[in-house]
Design goal:
Length: 436
């Protein structure tokens, strides 16, 4: 079958793009390997809630309309919201359709699926940036008696052995899982490397209120000093809970979690850790203080009258000598949770656009060296806002316009091969229908 554009992935980004293309009268299809919002339904743990408040959970033409704007959405609620959005925008979704290959063909692309082939002029990759857990090779150094879990396979503490757990990674996923597992009665050791520490609330307002108000979420990719590094910084240590509590290494230590340094090696069941935990904690505190300084400057400049004067979190507390090695068997650790990040799966993409790490080379979602190919999702795609659900609004607006202009250029190039009078008629038609 032929269609102008194929969108791969029926998550929030793919559906937002579908709405944009419909508004531009661009015929398209959305191919989804499972059901709408499949990843949110099947690859998240049971207690997970969004890090962003509900008022921040909006898509093009669909602001949050619930009765709990300051709450944090559960995964079933989010999947329901995305499914309702797909129906509202009449997205042409084909579910249970797995893409097995995308390759150049006749100036466009050939998309092969397990339910038949498609040809198209353009493709939007909206299959997500967290398809595969990035488990380091050192995992092979653990004993066969130690179970391996990732945030994509973890559901609840009930699936774990009753004994000790080592959580590797102190991003949002790592600290949340360490918190939940420790509260279940299982002793947790958390190996923490680089971290981004922020309070849940500051001056009585959610951290995302400040990020919005101070304009940080709108900082573009061209305003970031080291874009490659910025795209791989761990997600901030946040948790969405009804009580709106903060989470960091200090709060975890208060629960009884043993916090150690970055995991450096794992051989014959013995884990070795960096001795630089104190330094990484100081750096996290320093960066948090700089962020709060920026909020304070914005508040003064805008004469903001806060009901609750801002009180800053205390520095991360450290006590006792650094732990440099740990025999997992002797410590009774029978599970390792690898909260060490994710990577996209583009193994089916037969187009020479991947870098040495298997990531798509792009400029703000416009794939390099492959006209008509676009990327959605991922950290800092076009701005800091891109890292969150609401970022799909601005990202799809820009990319849909670029896609439409690309299609116009392709059609114009083809028309130039026709009779000159046909070209003149086409140009006059474009001029008469151009938007003011």
């Amino acid at each position: 079958m032929h269609v102008t554009t194929v969108i791969i992935g029926a998550g929030h980004a793919g559906l937002a793009m579908s709405r944009r293309l419909t508004a531009r009268s661009i015929d398209h299809v959305v191919l989804e390997r499972g059901q709408v919002a499949n990843s949110w339904r099947t690859e998240r743990w049971d207690s997970l809630r969004l890090l962003t408040p509900n008022w921040h959970s909006r898509l093009p033409g669909a602001p949050y309309a619930g009765d709990d704007p300051d709450g944090f959405m559960t995964m079933p609620a989010l999947a329901s919201m995305i499914s309702d959005y797909a129906e509202a925008v009449a997205a042409p979704v084909q579910t249970e359709t797995t893409v097995t290959r995308v390759a150049p063909a006749d100036g466009g692309y050939a998309v092969t699926t397990d339910r038949g082939p498609w040809t198209c002029e353009s493709v939007v990759l909206a299959s997500g940036a967290a398809n595969v857990a990035a488990v380091p090779a050192m995992a092979q150094g653990a004993s066969s008696s130690v179970a391996m879990v990732t945030p994509l396979t973890y559901r609840s503490p009930d699936q774990l052995d009753d004994r000790g757990v080592l959580v590797v990674g102190a991003s949002a996923s790592g600290v949340q899982l360490a918190d939940e597992i420790q509260r279940s009665g299982r002793p947790v050791t958390l190996a923490a490397g680089e971290q981004v520490r922020v309070p849940r609330s500051y001056g009585g307002r959610d951290i995302f209120w400040w990020l919005e108000a101070a304009g940080l979420l709108d900082e573009g990719r061209d305003e970031v000093d080291d874009l490659v590094r910025a795209r791989h910084i761990p997600s901030p240590q946040l948790i969405g809970t009804p009580e709106r509590r903060s989470i960091d290494l200090s709060s975890l230590a208060d629960l009884g979690v043993e916090v150690v340094g970055r995991l450096g090696s794992l051989r014959d069941g013995v884990a070795q850790f960096s001795g630089g935990l104190a330094n990484t904690c100081r750096l996290a505190d320093l960066k948090m203080q700089r962020l709060l300084d920026r909020f304070d400057d914005w508040a003064r400049h805008n004469d903001l009258d806060l009901d609750d004067p801002p009180r800053r979190p205390e520095p991360i507390r450290r006590s006792g000598p650094a732990v440099l090695d740990l025999d997992l068997h002797r410590r009774g650790i029978r599970t390792i949770v690898w909260a060490t990040g994710y990577r996209p799966d583009h193994s089916w993409l037969d187009v020479p656009v991947l870098d040495r790490r298997g990531r798509v080379r792009h400029d703000g979602g416009v794939v390099l060296d492959s006209p008509g190919l676009y990327l959605l999702g991922g950290n800092l795609l076009r701005s800091r806002r891109s890292s969150y659900l609401a970022g799909a609004d601005a990202d799809t607006l820009a990319l849909a316009d670029h896609l439409r202009d690309h299609l116009d250029r392709v059609r114009l190039d083809r028309s130039r091969r026709r009779h000159p009078l046909e070209v003149l008629a086409l140009d006059r038609g474009r001029a008469s229908t151009a938007a003011p």
